[in-house]
Amino acid sequence: PSVRGENLRFKESDVFNLLKEVFIPWLNAYRFFVQQVERYEKEEGELFEYEESVMGKSSNVMDRWILSFTQSLLSFVHQEMAAYRLYTVTPRLVKFVDNLTNWYVRFNRKRLKGDTNKEDCERALETLYSVLFCMIRVMAPFTPFITETMYQNLKRALKPGALGQGDTNSVHYLMVPQPVRKLICPEIEACVSILQSVVELGRYLRDKVNTPMKYPLPEVVVIHKDQQILNDVLRLESYVKDELNVKSVTVSTDKEKYGVSLRADMNFKLLGARLKGDVKKVQQKVAELKDEEIQTMLSSGSIELLGHQIDASELIVRYSFTGERASELASKYEAHSDNTALILLDITPSQEMLDEGLAREVVNRVQKLRKKAKLVPTDEVTVWYHVDNKYADLSRILSSHLEYIETSTKTPCRPLYQKNSTSVIIDEVVEIKEASLRLVITQGICSGWALTSAAVSTVDSEGAKGGMTCPWVNIILDGPPRFGVSSCSGTLLLENPVGSSVINSCQELLEAAHSVWGFPLKHAKLHVERKEVPGSVKVSTLSGKTVVITYTSCKVPVATSALRPYSKYVNVESSSKKGCVLLENPCGDGILPAAKFEEIVKRVLNVHANPKLYTDVSRKKPLQLNGVSLAKLNGMTVYA
Q1: In degrees rounded to 5, what are phi and psi of residue 167?
Q2: Please, are residues 451 and 402 in contact by the beta-carbon 8 Å criterion?
Q3: Which residues of the chain fall short of a pLDDT of 50?
Q4: Parallel, antiparallel, or unpaired: how do β-strands 413-415 and 381-387 relate?
């Protein structure tokens, strides 16, 4: 239809953009949610149910933010629809879908996948459910069929009576929900908005210097006059680090400290024809603009020079470094800003960071090849690799970062020349930084993987003879760990000190492992060499063995064994007691700091003051802990 000769229908491009920017990302978020609910119900062995009384109970800042943003949107929709301003609603819907898919779901994938813990996963799923269920009722008049399909599926998770009285057989029988004012928190919305600005500025700078996100960088500096804004950045520091892959976040109110200032140049293509004879005079004035004047221009959108009104878009604004350290700072930092903040990104990674980035590239290629072969995370496979001798850097990374690659892919990786006769699933040559890497994936887990993946270090001859003093059990978790843990292997002590039981039954062994890896206990089982361990078995008979834990029904465990403890350890001995201190658990989770080590030694040996420790039985050689990594003590015995 048309009014006054104007066509009011959407153009095909408008419909396509609406599908691309709103409905497809929104549908992807819905599908991801359904997948995670199915995973939750399978792993936890219980149904996911939602009731509105739990909405807003989560203390997680991202949960509170997306709920607040949703309720703010609801309020806006009611206001605009009442005034028949339908055209103002669509841009806000686009912004909402972007916040939901590219920010909330992206930032909370680990929580939604259950990688943290059960309770945290439930809060994230409840939050995402409440947002989706709210928005399908808002979107129902615009997209009647897709919202009806989503509604029929989502309502299965509602507790009976949650929608009140009346006919609830269709989403179109329900009223658009009213905003819950108590959930709206402008402070949190502003805080996350600052986070988004910092992350987007950082992404822009990474693209500008052509540094992929896989490669870590040393630092990002956020500069703003308002200390409250900087406090908001620090509040969400962990998200900035993860999203920009930087090691540290620094905030400052002192721009002069970093010697950064703005300078402007004239855009001749835009201004040349308009200014005509005044071009050179205006160009000189533009070059003389000070930092404060340029900032004022950017804020107001224009500036008047020699009687000419110059729009901010007609000038080219750049950052430069001034002062005694100008050349040093210019080579170290790239700068960019918007109306929110100025950030400096340290673009000088160390060799260690470059190596880590290359290792991430290898992980990426392995994961892509697994996906191409249509493998799922639980498939038992081995990756075999080959690198030509001329690519020495890549060979070195595969050797030095092997444990990280195996932990990240949850797949054993071995040199191709060691390949056994197992059948090949896929064989492909991939490119990494102009180097060729051949990857072959075969069925089954290669022998001896558990020992290597645990990264058991060789110990000195004295320590190796005695081994671990206390009875121990190696643990392999056959599935993704939680609690933010990445490694699936570790060691548990059955006694500590010797003669004092720590774990007395198979059930207690499961509970002790659960406290480390956070897996669901309901279907958890112990296995030794693929055979299930009955609960009645004396746990002492498992001493010195490798126990595999599965936590999904009908799961066939991997077969593995090892001769030594996976975790690094130190034996401790006094005149009356012998015990052990695990330096890491799980493997690769970081070595104990010296203060924590001394605290555990006190508890194991049952002494009140920090005991003096020695490296020899005659107690003549004091153990020096200051500035020494405890990893060097692995396998040794120290004496109190």
Answers
A1: -80, 120
A2: no
A3: 1-13, 15, 450-465
A4: parallel
Q: Which two tokens stand for residue 19?
A: 């599908």
CB 114 within 8 A of CB 39: yes
Q: Cβ distance 260 to 321 under 8 Å?
A: yes
CA 497 from chain centre, in angstroms, equals 38
Q: What is the pLDDT of residues 212-231, one digit of tens each?
A: 888 889 999 998 888 888 99
Return the number of other C-beta atoms located less than 10 Å from residue 79's C-beta: 13
Instruction: Determine the pLDDT at residue 126.
Output: 93
pTM, two decimals, is 0.63
- Cis peptide upstream of residue 593 (ω within 30 degrees of 0): no
Query: For residue 289, what are its two tokens?
Result: 């603009």
The number of angstroms, rounded, from the C-alpha of 211 to the middle of its chain's C-alpha atoms is 19
Handedness of CA 590, 595, 596, 597 (dihedral sign): positive
Q: Which residues pair with 431 in a beta bridge?
A: 436
| Residue 455 Rama label (left phi>0; alpha psi -120 to 50; beta) | left
Q: Tell me how far apart the alpha carbons of residues 481 and 113 are, in angstroms, rounded to a whole number.
A: 11
For the CA atoms of the chain, what is the radius of gyration?
Answer: 30
Q: What is the DSSP string of 278-342?
A: GHHHHHHHHHH--HHHHHHHHHHSEEEETTEEEEGGGEEEEEEE-STTHHHHHHHEEEEE-SS-E
Structure tokens at 58: 């989560």
User: Where on the phi/psi map is residue 572: left (φ > 0), alpha (ψ -120 to 50), or beta?
Assistant: beta
Return the C-alpha torsion angle 407, 412, 414, 418, nearest 10. 160
